[in-house]
Design a protein that fits this description.
six-stranded parallel beta sheet
Length: 330
């Protein structure tokens, strides 16, 4: 089968069939007729032929740190919603938080001639910049604010500031913080900086020293809560850089017989599904992860169509979701 034969069976022109497969405008009547023939014949256009004709592969490379992360899953869902509507397909690379793999995939995607790349970054090194500067396809960074590049990021600083103030507003004066690695500027540095600003403004500058650094796992959250309690002594509230860290920390506190939230209030970041099934449920920050994925994909498609488009840096909003872990003590 070819376009001419499809057109004949559908009773339309070959040009209409071409527009159908390239997401161009045709009437709903013609679209329905072509769709019927395509379904009956099982016809699929040649990707190679389309690439030669349009100079586009209709493939987008997406690089993520861990696909098993709820936040990453939401970002990918947002990306897919836009790519599907635009007739693009996604090639997904899971780096397992290995920066070497990130750089390998950036190079591989460029060599394999995808039309563009969305990079969900956690760490951004000079080597990342060198590779991205040399790439022949547009790149959008998601999750980090990178000067000079198209990026979609979150207001991590003010989110951490506000959730810390929530605990302070409930009379807590012995706070601690479990940070993400500081090589991650957003989840690590910015969230810790927001916590520090909040306690300093409350006249409790010494609380800025009450912190430890965890990785992004529950196991690390458990271990680092133990370390924080041993370092700081009795605390009455802990802010965690992620929900996953917070859940691990809650497990340790329960094992020690600490009553939540009466003796200890705890809060996280991410509003992941697990925050609703902990006991008590976890107060957290909701970030617009799915929307950030969709916005990233839209920016990328704009740059594919117009390589001279202006560089955009878009900050997404957030909201505090208060649940039982910071509720009124019994």
């Amino acid at each position: 089968m070819n376009i001419a034969e499809i057109a004949k069976l559908a009773g339309v022109s070959p040009a209409a069939v071409s527009r159908y497969f390239n997401n161009g405008y045709i009437s709903e009547e013609k679209r329905a007729a072509i769709h019927r023939v395509v379904e009956e014949t099982g016809y699929r256009p040649s990707l190679q032929a389309q690439t030669l004709r349009t100079k586009k592969t209709k493939l987008i490379g997406v690089i993520v740190p861990r696909i098993d992360s709820g936040a990453v899953g939401s970002i990918v869902a947002g990306i897919l919603s836009v790519l599907d509507a635009g007739g693009y397909q996604m090639l997904l690379a899971d780096t397992q938080n290995a920066t070497e793999r990130e750089m390998e995939y950036l190079t591989v995607f460029d060599e394999k001639q995808v039309d563009g790349v969305i990079f969900a970054a956690t760490v951004f090194t000079p080597e990342h910049r060198r590779i991205m500067k040399a790439m022949s396809v547009p790149v959008v960074v998601t999750g980090q604010r990178i000067a000079g590049y198209n990026c979609v990021y979150h207001d991590d600083y003010h989110a951490a500031y506000d959730i810390t103030r929530l605990l302070l507003g409930k009379g807590r004066r012995k706070l601690g913080f479990i940070s993400a690695p500081h090589k991650d500027e957003a989840a690590g540095q910015e969230r810790f900086r927001g916590y520090c600003r909040a306690v300093e403004e409350a006249g409790l500058k010494e609380l800025a020293e009450n912190y430890v650094i965890a990785d992004f796992s529950m196991k690390s959250g458990y271990e680092k809560m133990k370390e924080l309690m041993e370092k700081c002594g009795e605390l009455d509230g802990v802010v965690c850089a992620t929900d996953t860290i917070a859940v691990g920390g809650m497990r340790y506190l329960k094992e020690q017989g600490v009553k939540l939230p009466r003796q200890m209030m705890i809060a996280g970041h991410g509003n992941s599904a697990i925050s609703d099934v902990t006991t008590p449920t976890l107060t957290t920050v909701h970030y617009s992860f799915e929307e950030s994925g969709a916005v990233s994909a839209k920016i990328l498609l704009e740059n594919i169509e117009d390589r001279s488009a202006a560089v955009k840096g878009i900050m997404m909003g957030y909201r505090i979701v208060e649940k039982d872990s910071t509720g009124t003590p019994d």
